[in-house]
Amino acid sequence: MARIPVRFNKIAAAFDEAARASTVVARQCESSSGSDHSSEDLSDLSDLVNSFIETGDHEGNKTAPEKEDDEHDDGSESEPEGYWSETKDALKQLVKNKGDNVKVKIVGLVELACRNVLDMSSEGFKRRIMSDLRDNGFDAGLCKSRWEKFGRHPAGRHEYIDVNVNRTRYIIELNLGGEFEIARPTTSYDSLIQIFPRIFAGKPEELKQITRLMCKSMRESMKSNGLKVPPWRRLGYMQAKWFAHYKRTTNDENLDKNASKNVATATKRSVGFEELPAVSFYCRDGFVANSKIGLKVGYLSAAFMQS
């Protein structure tokens, strides 16, 4: 019974941190264009709460053991034999597009756009791809996630593309493997990075599984080299990139504002898209994901019950 107050304090601290981060992010997003979205997936919240409690990230428990990264760093325990081959097989299944015609179509269009582009990280490139996907009938949007410092996870921001088809959301990343690159990777870990395609299109639940697999493998790789996992490569931080509060915009206001319509059209063609017949892929201008800003107390309670 004596441990109950400690547990309660940890839960209260997690709630306070989450509420503070949500409030700050909401205020930051108010000043930018686009519609607000925040995940209502219970597993997202549960992961965040578990990460916060288990790593002792809150100020009231600075001396708590950091289970995520430090508990087995002495090398006394390791993953069972066959771990890397099993992880590789699971990852291959998650990144493949076979059997999903929507994925195949999206990836085909984006690959065409990237065919002659050396730097896919150039400013405005993702917005241009989003615009071209919309021109080809997809309900595509440019998503900008942003989050405040949460425990030991630093503040950050990320930009990616999404596409909604019949109320199914697909997340598009131009270099997903690069998001998981680390210093001094083992041969086994590097073999996982090589599995990622240049263009990734996947459902949120698939990306969540990928993130969990890669963060666990990352920890094993770095542990074998006597390295600590940096805050920006921990599960909580990595998941925030795609599952934190985000702004979604569907306009192309930053694409050559001062250029004429013909010049703008030529610019779009220059990145690789060819003129295609106007075919609708369930693009609904009025479609808005069923999401609400903020954390729900009921969901938070359920998350703690699972932990």
TrEMBL record:
InterPro entries linked to this entry: PDDEXK-like
Cross-referenced Pfam families: PDDEXK_6
Domain of life: Eukaryota
Comp. bias intervals (Basic and acidic residues): 55-66
Signal peptide interval: none
Coiled-coil region: none
Ranges where the record places region Disordered: 53-85
Stretches with biased composition (Acidic residues): 67-80
Protein name: DUF506 domain-containing protein
